[in-house]
């Protein structure tokens, strides 16, 4: 597949998640609630997670922001549901490295998340793409350290 065709495919995947977000809403009695924003562009995320016995059993988000921010939140909630917390964090680390153009574990199946790989070429948009992931990291860290 040519680069141009791949770029168009990735754009379609991003727009599909933006226009038809997966896991949009809020978990009633969600065990973890995290609110974060990106003050430089106004993106805002409200993430709710259920974590039981070290596994993310449910994840939902609400918020407002650019297509990259909201598509990334949709992809992230899809990707972490059913995963052990440590696997969700490993996926987040891999995603962050991909966004920063660093070496990352290519053996991890990124699924639709791979469509965001081109964001790394636009430094101002990296915070948009990583906002939901940072919220998830903050949430599971607070769950393991309830001080």
UniProtKB/TrEMBL annotation:
GO molecular function: iron ion binding; iron-sulfur cluster binding
CDD domains: IscU_like
Domain of life of the source: Bacteria
Annotated GO biological process: iron-sulfur cluster assembly
InterPro entries: NIF_FeS_clus_asmbl_NifU_N (IPR002871)
Domain NIF system FeS cluster assembly NifU N-terminal: 10-128
Family: Belongs to the NifU family.
Entry protein name: Nitrogen fixation protein NifU
Origin species: Edaphobacillus lindanitolerans
């Amino acid at each position: 597949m040519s680069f141009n065709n791949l770029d168009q495919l990735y754009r379609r995947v991003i727009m599909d998640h933006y226009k038809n977000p997966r896991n949009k809403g809020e978990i009633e009695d969600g065990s973890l609630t995290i609110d974060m924003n990106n003050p430089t562009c106004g993106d805002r995320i409200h993430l709710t997670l259920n974590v039981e016995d070290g596994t993310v059993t449910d994840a939902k988000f609400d918020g407002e922001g650019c297509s990259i921010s909201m598509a990334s939140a949709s992809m992230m909630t899809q990707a972490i549901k059913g995963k052990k917390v440590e696997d969700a964090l490993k996926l987040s680390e891999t995603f962050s490295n991909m966004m920063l153009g660093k070496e990352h574990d290519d053996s991890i199946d990124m699924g639709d998340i791979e469509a965001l790989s081109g964001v790394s070429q636009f430094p101002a948009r990296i915070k948009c793409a990583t906002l939901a992931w940072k919220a998830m990291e903050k949430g599971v860290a607070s769950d393991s350290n309830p001080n």
